[in-house]
Design a protein that fits this description.
- The chain has helices spanning 4-7, 13-43, 49-76, 85-91, 104-129, 134-158; strands at residues 44-45, 102-103.
- The chain is an all-alpha fold.
- The protein has one domain (11-154): Ferritin, core subunit, four-helix bundle (Ferritin).
- Helix 2 (13-43) packs antiparallel against helix 5 (104-129).
- The mean pLDDT is 94.
- GO terms for molecular function: DNA binding; ferric iron binding; oxidoreductase activity, acting on metal ions.
- Belongs to the Dps family.
Length: 160
Amino acid sequence: MTDIAASQSVSNPDVAAGVAQFLSPVVIDLTALVVNGKQAHWHVRGANFIGVHELLDTIVDHAQEWADLAAERIVALGLPVDGRLGTVAAKTTTPELTAGFRPSNQTIAEVIAQIDAALAAVNTAVKELDELDQTSQDVAIEIARGLDKDRWFLFAHISE
């Protein structure tokens, strides 16, 4: 009988550690975007309320999917991920979201700042994973592509 626990070890622990080093901040910032995006979704106000409200739900769903994708890549390589609320609050690079009700243009600007912070972590992962693990880099590229699109959709609401 095969010992499943023993066969789950990573073929190259240095690669796994490097991937975790660059994808863990992505998980952290995307998890913060999920929480803050939902907060913004609940408190947005203005003439374009419904469009922004629904778009924020979509952005939150995407951020959750991408956080899961990055976390599962780390776990697939045999290392744990710390996405607990306390860890996310302590380590996120996303800016603080203003509490309470906000006009849609201010809400959008704040969520774009959240996305920009997450994109910084993702773009670092794309760059650093190039020589380390291209499969993990592909994960980061997929996330970057999606965040860029979500940012564009938000920005279109406030651009003139």
